[in-house]
Amino acid sequence: MKTYIEQNKDRFLSELFDLLRIPSVSADPKFKGDMRRCAEAVKESILKAGADLAEIHETPGHPVVYGEKIIDPALPTVLIYGHYDVQPADPYELWETPPFEPTIRNERIYARGSCDDKGQFYMHIKALETMVATGSLTCNVKIMIEGEEEVGSDHLGTFVRENKEKLKADVILISDTSIIANDVPSIEVGLRGLTYLEVEVTGANRDLHSGVYGGAVANPINVLCEMIASMKDENNHITIPGFYDKVQELSAEERSLMNEAPFDLDEYKRDLAIDELEGETGYTTIERTGIRPTLDVNGIWGGYTGEGAKTVLPSKAYAKISMRLVPDQNNDEILDIFTKHFLSIAPPSVKVVVKPHHGGLPYVTPVDSVEYKAAELAMKEAWGGKQPVPTRGGGSIPIVALFEQELGVKSILMGFGLDIDALHSPNESYGLFNFYKGIETIPLFFKYYTELKK
Amino acid sequence: MKTYIEQNKDRFLSELFDLLRIPSVSADPKFKGDMRRCAEAVKESILKAGADLAEIHETPGHPVVYGEKIIDPALPTVLIYGHYDVQPADPYELWETPPFEPTIRNERIYARGSCDDKGQFYMHIKALETMVATGSLTCNVKIMIEGEEEVGSDHLGTFVRENKEKLKADVILISDTSIIANDVPSIEVGLRGLTYLEVEVTGANRDLHSGVYGGAVANPINVLCEMIASMKDENNHITIPGFYDKVQELSAEERSLMNEAPFDLDEYKRDLAIDELEGETGYTTIERTGIRPTLDVNGIWGGYTGEGAKTVLPSKAYAKISMRLVPDQNNDEILDIFTKHFLSIAPPSVKVVVKPHHGGLPYVTPVDSVEYKAAELAMKEAWGGKQPVPTRGGGSIPIVALFEQELGVKSILMGFGLDIDALHSPNESYGLFNFYKGIETIPLFFKYYTELKK
């Protein structure tokens, strides 16, 4: 198989580039046509890889692409999940090269979606092609690539519920996460959940002159700032009543094991150009992003934000706020207690609205499971005998918990990205090493998984 | 004179409309051409009114229009000040009729600048025309209309310093303020000063994935909110060290006198559609806007503010912040202590920049001065014997304090607007009653001022 990959590596890359050129931004309605184009392209690529069928399923939002190759119903079935939608690329001006014109610089692919998740799910399609072409496919494959992951997978839940038979599988394999370093393979065994919402604070019914009314009428921006500030204490502990009630506290052993994962604090700070980290007192950076919940403002706006000065006392202020959740927090419960709390701390001088965006449950994969062992063996072989490290990722793939509920199978998060990939940021990139290493590792997972299931 | 005004009222209005149609927004460079056009139009209108000369003076920013009519050097000279620039009109979508297409609805002129300040300074030009046409001009008139009042009059100071001889006058008359109600004439004897600045808070060197980094790296929006919130205590008292050091505390008598001014709290709240006011504990609304300093965020932005959700941990957050000042606070000192304080409360996890925009000193006119008496008599006569009330306005006309420093003369703030005029807001308007009442009152000020100076 390595030979086949070697012989076709340039074509694999140029095919990925074609996919990256499609601005499939799910959050912004003006890219609706591109989303459709992208779904068609994904479907075609699955067929070309040698699948028996590939089809586009409509949803009330963006379509889901499904494909499969069933070689023997008696054999195990691996369901591949990925997403063809990407984050908005703005601010565009910060991109060194256009976000939708993939460019190679120092062995890396620069483009929106290069890693998250086009570059990663496309590895599976090329891995399938490789296994089919070299007659080394050891079990059945199903592929589901959705178009709404970046906006909360609103309609995938329904699709999964309505297609349980079609999606029946023994394990779900997902590449939408990172490894610690190119010489330190790792597998994510935990994902944080998410509650994402938007708040609106309204003072007077119109923008006012800050001289005539300033000091006497509530300023919704000041009020919003005070409300946001009040939700964390001096230890960066979230003050929403009940927020931590269901948080699993790990044992000292578990925590020290976690902290054995390689982590270079100086390199981390240098990469981000920050002097000091900031997080919850009493936890390490690995713990803060792995096993602790958070509350971050993802966006804020209100009043005059144009050129120069405007002495306005605005009528409204807004913020997009998200909370990362850990086992056993429930995103619906957290949305509920956040909303109650936010309304309760609003002063009588303003009106407040909390608008839910989306959310998902946290997730954990047992390291003693067959699924995990197969991934461990695959990576170990691909990395020349180096044992992969189990890690707790800070990100969220809300759909993973839903898969377990609806399909009753575990997901393996075998991603190949790196922290430096700048996901969701300008100049997102994905290493060529990682792209090809993924294509090489995935067939090994199939092989070991089939063996272990015997 | 009343007859002349009556006979020409329609023309006066249509001339004002032509002026209001010019989008003279000084804050936004894209209106530079319109600013120039507006200055030319103002110059022409001064000549048409019967001035001996009218000229445009260039500045590094927008031009100043100057005109004069000297009937006898032995007589007193009144210097009229106003501004032809207006606030930005956005958000445009909230205007019932286009901001730069003046429209009459229920006896009011709706347009950006209808009151602030085109509608008000144009009263003086029509008053001059009236006095000249009816041979009733009792003293010399000088007119200075600038184009940078809404952006801090950056270059008027230099212009004034360089033209002291030309601008030599006995009193400065300004209509850029309000009366309490159409049946309650009033004169502003106090203006608040202003310190306006912009802050930038930077966390990491790029936008980050809020899942991968959230909880471990400072979020500049959360930090900015905490910094802003920390600058007021639970009594809405500003916590910046030294902020109140130079604030004049009024005597119990002065305060009770102030609070005798008619004020309908229910009507005030109904007009703004708010349930509760919010302000510094221990002071009435009239005091909060008249004799107490404030700190308001005029604009805030950072992170993702587009459609939908983006789980980004942003690199930067910004806010435009202004403080209204009262005697004897000094805007430069306040800028200085704000900056020191803001930098001192920034956590080591972020970098902070404070960028000054503009400012001005607070101002007070003695009610026992000849200037004030003349205004008082003029209004009293125009309002059929009703005595005008002295008030402390919350707004700022930074240049007024500078006039006193540089020209050594007092300014009279005889404005004719109303609180409902929605200055700086969508649907700014100015009452026809107020426009014509101003044109009627101004000549009376000239008459009484000349008499009292004899």
TrEMBL record, chains A, B:
Name of the protein this chain belongs to: Dipeptidase
One GO MF term attached to the UniProt entry: metal ion binding
Record Pfam families: M20_dimer (PF07687), Peptidase_M20 (PF01546)
Keyword Zinc tagged: no
Domain Peptidase M20 dimerisation intervals: 190-347
Any Gene Ontology biological process: proteolysis
NCBIfam families tied to this protein: PRK07907.1, PRK08201.1, PRK09104.1
Lineage of the species this protein comes from: Bacteria, Pseudomonadati, Bacteroidota, Cytophagia, Cytophagales
Keyword Protease: yes
InterPro entries named in the record: Cyt/Met_Dipeptidase, Peptidase_M20, Peptidase_M20_dimer
Organism: Runella rosea
Keyword annotations of the record: Hydrolase, Metal-binding, Protease
